[in-house]
Amino acid sequence: MVQELTSARSVWGAVWTGRETANLRGNQLLVLIEDANQITNSVVALVELLAISIVYEIKCLHCAIERLQKSILK
């Protein structure tokens, strides 16, 4: 998706700047493409953080279960 957004931004930027007069709609489209790219990057980062936190929580649960098992077996 990021590659598609980068490509779209490049193509539209070339078309838009090639025109004699820049218009508000063209500028808004460039801003929208850039915003979509930034939102995508943020979502990817959040998913990665979530994956890391899930792994951490699983390790913590595993350690807690081991401690509980040891205390039960005493």
Summarize the structure.
Helix content is 91%, strand content 0%.
Question: How does this structure look, described?
Answer:
It contains two helices and no strands. The model has no long low-confidence stretch (mean pLDDT 84).
**Strand proportion:** under 5%
What string gives the helices and strands in order?
HH
| Count of the separate structural domains | 1
Q: Helicity level, as a percent range? A: over 70%
N-to-C span = 55 Å
Q: Could you tell me the mean pLDDT?
A: 84
The largest sheet, given as strand count, sense and whether it forms a barrel, is:
none
Q: Spans of 5+ residues with little confidence (pLDDT < 50)?
A: none
| Principal-axis shape | rod-shaped
Structural class: mainly alpha
> What Rg is obtained from the alpha carbons, in whole angstroms?
24 Å
How many H/I helices? 2
Number of strands: 0
List keywords for this structure.
74 residues, 0% strand, mainly alpha
Topology:
Blueprint: H1 2-18, H2 24-73
